[in-house]
Design brief:
Elements lengths: L1 E4 L18 E4 L2 E5 L10 E6 L4 H4 L7 E5 L2 E2 L5 H9 L5 E7 L6 E6 L1 E4 L2 E2 L1 H7 L8 E14 L11 E4 L10 H16 L3 E2 L6 E11 L8 H4 L4 E5 L4 E5 L13 E11 L7 E11 L5 H12 L10 E14 L2 E4 L6 E4 L4 H5 L6 E5 L2 E2 L4 H14 L27 H9 L25 E7 L2 E7 L2 E10 L1
Parallel strand pairs: 12-13, 12-14
Antiparallel strand pairs: 1-3, 2-9, 3-4, 5-6, 5-7, 7-8, 10-20, 11-18, 11-19, 14-17, 15-16, 17-18, 19-26, 20-21, 22-23, 22-24, 24-25
């Protein structure tokens, strides 16, 4: 069972809104699920994702944290519904979690919920709603890696293990370049999870193995293999999605020119020496040579996302969520989209002087006196009319199954900017992406709002803050 403690309104195409009971909604900024994993948090809520710029992130909540108590109530003493109610209740904006992970057995984390009117749409939601204005900056992307993972059958609590080191062949003190990359990458990943290196008496010894070579079983590629769609994955070293010379996991091995294998084993040294606690192996079929060092640096962080909380035995699915937008702190009225419902405290809009109940007549000279359905219809028409300005070579299917995601063609930015400027396209909310060259070639960091406040008309210049959010999670 999985629950999401975040913004409670889903906005995929602006007004796909489901109303909630009550006047307010609150978010803590994380998702969780009740664990069935005997090695990590059995029967307790485990944090699956922490949302950027959220109360949870500010409180230091981390992926894989086990929730032990909520407001001093042990989660094992209450029902799943009670847990959900305590986390989502709007009556109390403060909540105290007690969480456990590798580095802390019982860390107390006070959180203050962010609560909003159920009538409001914030800029994060609007950035998702108008994502086709800038697919480069806002999209969800699913990718699959051919990993095979396994954990010990014993009911062993992995949180008892605190330290690790790497296995060394007796008499061999040298470390190859690939081993250095593997070890340093693993060290960075595991220390971030709360484990520490102990060369004298480690709880876990890590054994790794690897091979890259021409495929001795290669015979001939079929037409289907020749015509396979390119494989894209997230490259953590470059912070971008890139194309790899890999075949899909369904490709017959005899049709791949090259093979690559990388394996990791965590071996118990504390309770049952020699027992394999957890292991993961990647097996790639490839059309061209590829650096083992580069593969390790990119894929080991992904492989280790299943430690200590494993969900998949093979073919692990990941979702990359990327959102970058201009934040002013304005929350808009769902039912009257040009009305300000509220302003975030100490936000750029607050500092500039925009107030609740202000009516926004124009943003950057673009009219706002339309209904939400009119904005939605114009947005859809804009997508259709500007397909000719998209780069067909960047087409991908997003995590929601939408197959037409494409980046803008960089050679057509001038034409794109002209379409954004047309009144009938109703692109007022393109200010969310005004840092992009196809909207704002000069990268001007200010945004002009024409406001009506009672009988008074005011022009207010706001300097947005650039928010960049990126998360990777198991699907």
């Amino acid at each position: 069972m999985r629950k999401v403690i975040s913004a409670a309104i889903l906005v995929n195409v602006l007004m796909a809104v489901s109303a909630q009971e009550g006047e307010m909604r609150c978010r803590l900024g994380f998702s969780y699920e009740f664990s069935n994993n005997k090695n990590w948090g059995k029967d307790k809520p485990v944090i699956m994702k922490v949302y950027p710029n959220s109360p949870a992130e500010r409180a230091g909540i981390r992926q894989n944290d086990i929730i032990e108590e909520i407001n001093s109530l042990k989660v094992t003493a209450i029902t799943m519904d009670d847990v959900d109610s305590l986390l989502t209740a709007t009556e109390d904006s403060h909540i105290v979690l007690t969480v456990r992970n590798f580095s802390d057995s019982a860390r107390v984390a006070p959180l203050t919920k962010e609560c909003y009117s159920n009538r409001s749409l914030n800029e994060s939601q609007l950035a998702a709603a108008f994502s086709m204005y800038s697919v480069e900056d806002t999209h969800d992307r699913l990718f699959v890696c051919p990993f095979v993972s396994a954990a010990t059958e014993d009911a062993t609590d992995f949180s008892q293990f605190k330290t690790f080191d790497f296995s060394v062949v007796e008499g061999d003190k040298s470390t190859s370049k690939i081993e250095s990359v593997i070890n340093e990458t693993l060290k960075a990943v595991l220390t971030k999870k709360g484990l520490s290196v102990n060369a004298l008496n480690p709880d876990i010894v890590i054994h790794t193995y690897y091979v890259f070579d021409k495929n001795p079983s290669f015979r001939k590629k079929s037409k289907a293999t020749e015509e396979q769609a390119p494989v894209f994955r997230y490259d953590i070293t470059r912070d971008k999605v890139v194309k790899f010379p890999f075949y899909s996991s369904s490709t017959p091995e005899s049709e791949a020119e090259y093979v690559l294998q990388l394996g990791i084993r965590f071996i118990d040294q504390r309770f049952v020496p020699g027992r394999i606690l957890w292991e993961c192996e990647a097996n790639e079929l490839m059309s061209a040579p590829y650096s083992l060092e580069e593969y390790a640096a990119i894929h080991i962080p992904l492989m280790c996302m299943q430690f200590p909380y494993m969900k998949y035995n093979r073919n692990v699915q990941f979702i990359l969520t990327k959102k970058a937008y201009n934040y002013t702190g304005i929350n808009y009225n769902i039912y009257r989209i040009n009305e300000v419902v509220s302003i975030d405290f100490d936000s750029p809009a607050s500092k500039a002087g925009i107030l609740p109940n202000d009516i926004i007549e124009k943003i950057e000279g673009k009219r706002m006196d339309y209904t939400a359905p009119e904005f939605t219809a114009a947005y859809r028409q804009f997508i259709t009319n500007t397909l000719k300005y998209r780069d067909q070579g960047t087409r991908f299917t997003d995590a929601n199954g939408f197959a037409g995601r494409m980046f803008w063609d960089t050679f057509k930015y001038n034409r794109i900017a002209k379409d954004f400027a047309k009144d009938n396209n109703m692109t007022a909310f393109s200010y969310l992406y005004a840092f992009q060259p196809f909207v704002n070639p000069t990268r001007n960091s200010s945004c002009t709002f024409d406001i009506r406040r009672g009988n008074e008309r005011i022009r207010i210049v706001v300097r947005p803050v650039f928010y960049s959010e990126k998360t990777i999670e198991l699907n």
